[in-house]
Structure formats: C-alpha cells, structure tokens
User: What shape does this take?
Amino acid sequence: MSKERILVVDDDNGFQEVIRRILQRQGFDVETVGTAEKALENAREIFPNTTLLDVSLPDISGTEVLSSLLELHPDTVVIMLTGHSSVTNAVQSLNRGAFAYLEKPVDPEHLLSVIARGLEKQRLVFENRRLVEELEQKNREMGILLAVSQSVSQSLELQKILDSALAKVAEAMSVEAGFLYLLENGQLLLKGSYGFTPENLQKMKVIRLFDITGDSSSILNLPLFVMNKPGMEQYGAVSLTKLGYKSYACVQLATADEPIGIMGVATTLEHNFIQREVELLNAIGREVTIAVRNAQLYEEASSAKALRELDTLRTELLANVSHELRTPLAAIKGFASALLQQDVTFDEETRREFIQTIDMESDRLNILIEELLTMSRLEAGVLELRKERRNIKDVVDSIRDRLFTLASKRKLKIMIPPDLPLVAVDDIRIGQVITNLVDNAVKYSDEGSLITLDARTEEDAIIISVKDEGIGIPAELREKIFERFYRVKAKRTANSRGAGLGLSVCRGIIEAHGGRIWVESDAGKGSDFRFSLPII
Ligand code: ADP
Assistant: This one.
C-alpha cells in the first residue's frame, strides 16, 4: 500500500522541520510548504490525505485556504493549527469543514492521535464509497446478465441467440464489436458476430485449430485468444489488430465437461480490459453456453424426430404402395401369361385387347413409380429443380398432345393467353403437375363433361386452374386430399385407381417453386384446382 501523504502548511520553518520528523518517523509521506499559494499548488498536483494548516499564513488567511482545499479535495482531512487560540476562529474553521482545531505548541502525541482519527474516518469514507461503487457495478452487471439471459432464452435458434447476446455484450461493455466461435470438428467456426463489416466477417469465418496444435482443447485453454499471435493467419486466424481493432478481450465457453468455443469483444480504442470486465464476459459466456447447449439439444431432438417421421413414412409407403404396385403387375403378368399359352389361341381382337391392357397397366406402373420417386426426393429435400424463365403457354403447349389423349373422352378446353408474364419454372415438373390435375379431372368426372385449363395474372403471381364438372370435393376434405396416400372414401373414388400420392406430389413441386396449390369446389358440381407461380 502506498504511504499516506501529509501536507504541512506553516510559515515557521522550525515548526515545519519538527513536524516533518515526527510524521516521517510514523511512516507518513510528508510535504512542507510555507505559503497558502504553494499549498494549493501542491494539493492540485497530489491528493494529501491530511493537511496541517496554520491559520495565520503570510499570503491568504488559513480559513480561506481551507475552503479552497476542500473544494479541490473534499476528502482531505484538514487539521487547523494556531498560535493564539481564538474560539471564533476555531468554530469558523470547524464549520467550514476542518476535521480538528489544535493550539500551538502542539503536543506531538495529541497531534498524532488526531491525525490517526482523521485518517481512520477517511478510510471509512473511502471504503464505503468503494462498496457503493461495487454494488452499483454489480447491479449494472446483473442487469446486463439478465438482459442477455432473457434474450438468449427467448429463442432456440442458435444464430439469433448468439447475435442478440453479442449485441447486448457490446453495448454493455461499450465496445464496437463482438464475436463468438463454436468448436466443430477441430475447427472454430464463427457463429455469431456484432459490429464487424461483411468483408471482415468473411476473413474471420474459420480457424483450423487442429492444424495448429493437433489438440483443439489446449488452444482453447490459452488465457488469451490466438488471433493476435504471429503466424496464426495461415490457419485462418485473423489478427484483430490488422482489422483495425486496438484492444480485445476473449473468454472460453465451456460446459462442465468440455470447451465448446470462445467469445470476445473488440474495440478500435486503446482499452485495457480489467479483471472485472473479463469476469463479466465470463459470466455472460456461461449464460450463452447454456443457451447454445439448449439449442444444440433441441436441434438434435428435432432431427431425431424427423428421422422417426421418415421411418414412419417408409413403413406407410411400403404398406400403401406394395398393394398399388401389385395390382397392375398382376394384370400384366396374367395377360402376358395368357398370351404365352401355347395350347390356347386368341383371335386378333382379343390379342389386341390383352396387349392394350398390358400397355395401359405398364403406363400405370410407370406413373406410380415416378410419383414415388418424386415423393421420396421431395421428402428428403433433394428434388432438383431446373428452373428457367418460361412462358407458361409454352410449358402447356409441350404437353398438349398428352393432355388431349388423357381427356379423349371429355371436352378439354385450353385457354392460356400468350402474353402472360414469365415465370421461373422447371417445365418438366410443372408439366407433371398440370398432367396430374387433368388426369384427376378425368378420373373424377363423367364422359363428355367439360374440363377447362386456363391461366391468368393475379397481383405478383400467375394462377393456373384446372376445372372439371365432376363429383367435387366435400369442404372438410379440401386440405386433406393434399396429404400423401389420402383418398376420399366414396364409391366413385373406390372405382378409380390411384395411390393418393398425386396431389401431395403436386403440392411439393409447387411449394418448391415458391407457389401455393388449393382447390375450390362445389360438392357434386365439380372441382377447380388452382396453383400459383410467382412472377419473376
Ligand atoms: P389419387 O387420385 O391417386 O387417389 P390424388 O392425390 O391425386 O390421389 O388425389 C387424392 C384424392 O383427392 C383422390 O383420391 C380423390 O378422392 C380426390 N380428388 C382429386 N382430384 C379430384 C377431382 N378433380 N375431383 C374430385 N376429387 C378429386
């Protein structure tokens, strides 16, 4: 601890000397001056814990100096000294804030005990002030921690958690930038940031720890982050100094078992991060670690759920599909075997009928297998769309013949204006959707009825509609029919063939194009299937 300082202000040189010796012997740091002016000059430079002040100074009166001194340093303990005691003087001095008033000649022991009391009082004042400041600081820190923990617990989305935590940290610590890396496969990946320019972020993305030590945990144990160590840049670590930052602080994020990453703040100003600030950063780091673990567990749980759903889908698929595959196969096999029988001869017409059935059933198998493949690609999220800017009229023209063949026993009207705005589509897939809708319109309507295919612009999308005069769809099933394997349980549907996959495949394809598919229908009077494609 540094020595306590006593300023002696007295124009009597002999007195100065005596007092200096007495006080120095007690271990004080003593300064003596002979005038008020010198006293104030001295006090302006360094804080005196105690000032021994003669009342009658040659230049300014002691009581005035007292006021100026206390204005400079309200905490200095001023002990007034006087050669000729005057009660008025004493009262005046004490009223102005002097700690004590002593009469010369001063008894050294008495003086020392008064100084000791004064300093004790001063120490108490300092200690109290420190405690209050500490309390206020703690309060502020609790506020920051609370804000961070609130913002990190509001979301399970990792990116959001980290960005909002860093924004709070940077704001609380009055720095311009914050960064957070998480450990993944021996690399530190930048997962959250605040205040960095996009170009800088690009440079900071990855730090390949394994390249550096072969053991990622040891580098994370370094008290300071590696980024400013020379030679680190070849591993992807970017020197914050080179990015224009002058100071930074960084802490490790760790669960009870293992380090999971690092978090830090940086400023373009010269700033010595003190222990307290690092501790605060650590406390925030602990909150963030919990939030990160929660988000990771949530993600793991979600992907486990997704896997379970996929498994259910597979079981469902097998159960539904094996029947659908078996029916056309059985027909093909039956008619083919019949034709191959050597002991039976069929007339030309029957042979033709058999072959036609085989042909038709093969087509059905083909469609079913195509639907299944599309379905599984959609479910796995790997359906590749080859989108190009197309006029929807051209897309319809390319499948025109096929549509008229499908609807050969219906009246099919195609009304697509040639001047519709362009849309970004995979023409094969959109063709597949339209074919499917026309096929359904045929399946669920009577011979000779009207089927209309048209398109028009509506706000920022093109709406394509396939309208029939068939059996229609009850209101409560208009959403359900888009689910996979769902078929309306009605006599008419039971007679028609299908696996209930067509519409769910259509929905998958349209949604992958950023559009929407729905049905409007008057049960008994027909259905109007519509889908939208955003105009580019
Ligand atoms: P599928 O036609 O193979 O059964 P979809 O997914 O294409 O499967 O259709 C699901 C169900 O929606 C059909 O089983 C049928 O009940 C109903 N549906 C589809 N299109 C129409 C339509 N145009 N008119 C009446 N009902 C329809």
